[in-house]
Design a protein that fits this description.
two-stranded parallel sheet; alpha/beta; single chain; 37% helix
Length: 310
């Protein structure tokens, strides 16, 4: 049994991670300030004696004795991270400093949930970990993109200077049950609009692409990364290399929901990447991991969740 701290543990991804680590027999401390997380996501875990819930904002230091830390705290959808961009930067940067300081003091292993946004609007396709990215440092998305890039810098410097045992994963588009229905992400947007019989809104002409990873595949690779050889610190891409246009995704969701929704087009927001697809060679080689759940199967589970909760 390990004692594990998960910052952002009541969020979409964090709640699935809490559940999985508890099922494996660990003690889990879930820390969240509920800006985008919700007690609803974790209330089914309250009866588990190995689960502890703490309301706390990671921009302030937190003190606890644990073996491992997963740092997931940060709003991750444009709607939420642009709502208070200064707070978003503080969460990424000061949050990283606080978890790294804690890990240094108690000699815990710490994993940073980074993002494909560190690649910006990429000039290289698909994106390998060696690519430095094409990021606008002063745009509307910069608070998140640059915040996460700075967090990676801090993780590397704490590792080099203080021998902190770190891991970095770069998460590409992930979807599944417990997504926030109003988070503005494309999968939840399309599903909610379809289930409510509204028009499905595509920004741009619908030819821009994304790759979609089901949440269970992500949780698997995060745990494998945490348990991997200490010499392998990453960063490592995690995502599904199957690439779909926004138009293909909308059509799939229309088919699976049986909605009468029409597709409508709106202008593309600024700095919105045209292409996103991970090169997952490193994850295959070092972690023997690749995603298992195809888009259609994952969408069915996600649609079922939203149909029940809306």
């Amino acid at each position: 049994m390990k004692r594990i701290l998960i910052t952002g543990g009541a969020g979409f991804i964090g709640s699935h991670l809490c559940e999985r680590l508890l099922n494996e027999g660990n003690e889990v401390i879930c820390l969240d300030n509920y800006f985008t997380g919700s007690k609803q996501n974790i209330k089914h875990l309250f009866d588990n004696h190995n689960f502890e819930l703490v309301r706390h904002d990671i921009t302030s230091p937190y003190f606890v004795e644990v073996d491992e830390i997963y740092n997931l705290a940060c709003p991750a959808s444009p709607v939420h991270y642009q709502y208070n961009p200064i707070k978003t930067v503080k969460t990424s940067v000061m949050g990283a400093i606080n978890v790294l300081g804690l890990a240094k003091r108690i000699k815990a292993k710490v994993l940073q949930a980074s993002t494909s946004e560190v690649y910006g609007d990429p000039m290289v396709h698909p994106q390998p970990e060696s690519y430095w990215g094409n990021v606008n440092p002063i745009g509307l998305r910069s608070c998140y993109d640059e915040g996460k890039r700075c967090a990676e810098t801090l993780f590397m410097d704490y590792h080099r200077q203080n021998n902190v045992n770190i891991k970095i994963v770069r998460i590409f588009n992930t979807y599944g049950p417990r997504m926030n229905p109003d988070d503005g992400r494309v999968v939840s947007n399309f599903i909610v609009q379809a289930l409510q019989g509204k028009d499905i809104t595509i920004y741009g002409d619908g030819t821009q692409t994304r790759s979609f990873q089901y949440v269970d595949d992500l949780i698997e690779v995060m745990i494998r990364m945490m348990n991997a050889d200490d010499n392998f610190i990453g960063p490592v891409n995690t995502g599904n290399p199957d690439e779909f246009t926004m138009l293909e995704l909308a059509e799939k969701i229309i088919k699976l929901t049986g909605t009468k929704s029409e597709i409508v087009f709106e202008p593309l927001p600024s700095d919105d990447p045209k292409q996103r697809r991970p090169d997952i060679t490193l994850a295959k080689e070092k972690l023997a991991w690749e995603p298992k759940i195809p888009l259609e199967e994952g969408l069915k589970k996600t649609i079922a969740y939203f149909a029940k909760t809306l």
